Amino acid sequence: MTTLDGFASLLDAPAPAVLTTYRRDGAAVASPVWFRCTGDAFEVVIADGDVKLRHLAVRPDCSLLVFEAVPPFRGVRVSGRASLLREGVAEARRAIATRYLGPDAGERFTAARGPGVILRLPAGGARTWDLTPILPS
Questions:
Q1: Is 8-129 a CATH 3.80.10.10 domain?
Q2: What local confidence, expressed as pLDDT, does residue 2 receive?
Q3: Residue 13 CB neighbours (<10 A)
Q4: How many helices (H) and strands (E) does the chain have?
Q5: Based on the number of CB atoms within 10 Å of its own CB, is 119 exposed (0-12), middle (13-18) or buried (19 or more)?
Q6: Total-model pTM
Q7: Which one of 5, 40, 51, 55 has the lowest number of neighbouring Cβ atoms within 10 Å?
Q8: CA pseudo-torsion sign 133, 69, 2, 26
Q9: Sequence spans of domains, the chain
Q10: Backbone angles phi, psi at 23, to 5 degrees
């Protein structure tokens, strides 16, 4: 198990993230998502009717990859069995959207969205990388 210490600036930023779910036939499907890290779990809000929910109903295993597209090119990958929660969706969506869009646009985005589900993926077992030691100075 890898600790997330030292990765707060990545996990608190509006970093790119990719959620991988699996089709019924086992094929992996990667989707860009917004996320938040609560310390003990990663959360993604998924809209009702999204294909990701159908995938997760068949196979609740998934993987979330969060990364920097600029130096020092750090990243976190967490895989496991997701929990789907219906409570607190609006608050989670608002917190996540505000981080990516800013307060005003985040609030408007949240108000315009319909029902959804929080995908919660435990942070235990997260794998991290940091390319700082191998980058030229």
A1: no
A2: 56
A3: 12
A4: 4, 9
A5: buried
A6: 0.93
A7: 5
A8: negative
A9: 8-129
A10: -70, 165
Q: What are the tokens at 102?
A: 């800013």
List the structure tokens of 30. 């990667």
CA-based end-to-end distance of the chain: 30
Counted residue by residue, the chain has a size of: 137
pLDDT at 107: 97
* 78-133 residue pLDDT tens: 999 999 999 999 999 999 999 999 999 999 999 999 999 999 999 988 999 999 88
Q: pLDDT of 40-88, one tens digit each?
A: 999 999 999 999 999 999 999 999 999 999 898 999 999 999 999 999 9
The answer to whether the bond into 72 is cis (omega within 30° of 0) is yes
DSSP, res 23: -
Residue appearing with tokens 């985040």: 106
| CB of 119 closer than 8 Å to CB of 19 | yes
- Calculate the alpha carbon distances from 66 to 54, 58, 72, 78, 80 in Å: 23, 24, 13, 9, 15
